[in-house]
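For reproducibility, we list the full input for the magnesium ion complex.
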Amino acid sequence: MSNQIIDRAQKESRSLLTEIESKKLLKAAGINVVETKLAASQDEAVSIATELGFPIVLKIASTDIIHKSDAGGVKVGLKTAKQVAKAYDDIMKSVRQKAPQAKVQGVAVQKMARPGVEVIIGMSKDAQFGPMIMFGLGGIFVELLKDVAFRITPLEKRDAAEMIREIKGYPLLTGFRGQEAADISKLEDMILKISDFVEKHPEIKELDLNPVFAYKDGAVAVDARVILEDSKS
Ligand code: ADP
Ligand code: MG
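The corresponding predicted structure, in tokenized form, follows.
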């Protein structure tokens, strides 16, 4: 299954896997992701939303768009079929404006996950050391404060445990000021699974689970992006 998705992208000479493709790969690797389905039309978006149950999140599904929010391509907290239909139109309109060249496959329909502590797990390749796993807290912690930890693959359980604990924001994962604490062992497990997954797939150049919502009893990736190495064809 994993190979089918990767093969297809390589045949089409594209390096960006869509969120839907990326989540399929990760799910097959045992990583918990928000169930996400492709809708190719507005009617289909509404019927999938109704089947999944509200509240719903709609996102642009395009093999040409890396940052979906920047293109006005993400609508969260949709509570009715009517809101889903309108969000579909709004997304298409905004994307046509902001990314007129983008090929659009439709929208990704998914359940709105309940809020948790936002973390990021990523992989990038160092010219010298190869695949490195990154862990950090979401939002400003990564973007502004660069509060992240790195380890070279393959990771052992101890590496995953250490990298979570060495970020400055670690107290936010242990139930800071009455916030829900995060299930650290589930996060360790997710980091290790990502390490195994990228070891098995050297054709992956970059990977981002951004964000993952961490809860007291688990964690789920609400967004995922896989970028492949340029295929040599
Ligand atoms: P982008 O391509 O811009 O990174 P994301 O898929 O990360 O798009 O969506 C942007 C934001 O919307 C996320 O950071 C998250 O806060 C929220 N979000 C996305 N998907 C969900 C979801 N299924 N449930 C709850 N919130 C979500
Ligand atoms: Mg994201």
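Residues 2-111 form a domain with the Dna Ligase; domain 1 fold (CATH 3.30.1490.20). The helical segments are 2-11, 19-28, 42-52, 81-98, 140-143, 157-166, 184-200. Both points were considered when choosing residues for closer inspection.
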